[in-house]
Q: What sequence folds into this?
């Protein structure tokens, strides 16, 4: 489950609900809306369930627990890298099943084992998005990409968050920024159907419907299972499919 992120999974729900990549507002009145990004208010959570412990000093009890965890891992695994890989696998499973508090705790522990863990920044970025904090999600995903710029799936997640910013009228993302990230991701992995669908959405919001169809068919050829047929209907209402495949 490790690289199957909620960002990508939810984005497959479609543009009707605004798959996780969200468009803007002015142009978006009649356009796809995003599946509600979880979190409308900020609940009070224990520090261990906050991303990177809320970036605050740990209590003595939490610090003791963390030290014991690290010591236990050092005694049980052949290396820190092995421990990180083990706990990252579990953490991604929690993300995929929407157990975000537990996933957050696991990624925090991973960060303690390796402060430069790409998995930790990636996972916590996804969780922050799911909790409705786009600014934090962008910072975390950007850090992950700084550590490993070859992760095309993480770059698509980064683009998805920026597209959500655009749809919500927030300053953290523009269509041009989203397009740049998706283009980069596709240069790394031309068969990433999710990236093609997101690029299709960007073209839709720019009212370049012919280009949107081009990207839609690229997604179809990459992986037909990731096509958003509801979005295809919205696009067809703006401009018939030039290939005549979708009505």
A:
């Amino acid at each position: 489950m490790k690289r199957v992120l909620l960002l990508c999974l939810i984005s497959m729900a479609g543009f009707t609900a605004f798959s996780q990549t969200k468009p803007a507002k002015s142009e978006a009145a009649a356009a796809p809306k995003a599946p509600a990004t979880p979190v409308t208010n900020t609940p009070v959570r224990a520090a261990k369930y906050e991303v990177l412990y809320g970036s605050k000093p740990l209590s003595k009890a939490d610090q003791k627990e963390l030290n014991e965890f690290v010591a236990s891992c050092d005694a049980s695994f052949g290396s820190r890298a092995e421990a990180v890989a083990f706990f990252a696998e579990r953490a991604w499973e929690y993300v995929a099943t929407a157990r975000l508090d537990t996933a957050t705790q696991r990624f925090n522990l991973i960060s303690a084992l390796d402060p430069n863990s790409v998995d930790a920044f990636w996972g916590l970025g996804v969780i922050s998005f799911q909790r409705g904090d786009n600014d934090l999600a962008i910072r975390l995903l950007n850090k992950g990409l700084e550590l490993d710029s070859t992760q095309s799936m993480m770059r698509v997640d980064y683009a998805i968050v920026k597209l959500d910013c655009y749809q919500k009228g927030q300053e953290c993302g523009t269509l041009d920024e989203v397009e740049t990230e998706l283009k980069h991701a596709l240069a790394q992995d031309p068969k990433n159907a999710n990236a093609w669908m997101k690029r299709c959405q960007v073209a839709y919001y720019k009212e370049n419907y012919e280009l949107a169809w081009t990207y839609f068919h690229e997604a179809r050829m990459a992986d037909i299972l990731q096509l958003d047929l509801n979005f295809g209907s919205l696009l067809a209402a703006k401009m018939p499919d030039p290939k005549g495949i979708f009505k």
Remarks:
- Residues 1-6, 8-40 have pLDDT under 50 and may be disordered.
- The chain is about 60% helix and 0% strand.
- The chain has two domains: 49-148, 155-246.
